[in-house]
Amino acid sequence: MAKQLIIPLAICTLILSMLCAATRAETDVTLSENIHILPDGTVTPSTAPIHRNGDTYQLTNSLVYESIIIEKNNISLDGRGYTMQGNGIGKGVAAINLTCTGVTVRNFQINDYEVGILGACDGNRIVGNDFTRVHYDIAVYADNYEITQNYLNYVRIVGSNVH
Asked: In this structure, are residues 150 and 129 in contact, taking their beta carbons and an 8 Å threshold?
């Protein structure tokens, strides 16, 4: 009797795993931990969908329930139109955290976060991003920011020389 169940069970398992793999491939989404761009330029985890070319970092896939924490000065992070999908307002999470200076963040679609882009250090640029269902699209608590060509609903700025 047990031998008769092994083959149908194996076939069901194989079909289920193929369906899960196909569904994952179609969603074009990565599910993992938060992403860090460290002060030395290293991206962790190493499996993060970010391609580095010198001081330019480009997203290569959409992200779900993750944040990008930037700790490296003088870089450009290009979302290339990919989406960062959060888990909703009220969760106290920012999609992108700028904890350094001289950074340009551009071309992201950011949805369902408490904060889209959080800037706590001076001298960064936020260009050409689109925010949907985000409590604070951009929250800046620093000076000397350039914020241009973004689709914005609500911005919180505490600082000077922000244009």
From this structure: yes
User: What is the sign, positive or negative, of the torsion defined by CA atoms of 68, 135, 130, 100?
Assistant: negative
Q: What is the structure's pLDDT at 112?
A: 94
Q: Give the position of tokens 């944040």.
A: 67
Give me the residue label for tokens 């369902």: 112
Q: In which residue are the tokens 């959080």 written? A: 118
**Which is it for the CA torsion 159, 124, 28, 35, positive or negative?**
negative
Residue with tokens 């001298």: 123
pLDDT in tens, 55-78: 999 999 999 999 999 999 999 999
**Taking the complete model, does pTM exceed 0.70, yes or no?**
yes
- For residue 90, the 8-state DSSP code is T
CA distance to 56, 109, 118, per residue, from 80 (Å): 12, 9, 19
- Note whether 139 and 117 are within 8 A (CB): yes
Quick one: tokens of 96? 């992108």
At residue 30 the predicted structure's pLDDT band, cuts being 50, 70 and 90, is very low
Q: Provide the 8-state DSSP code for 61.
A: S
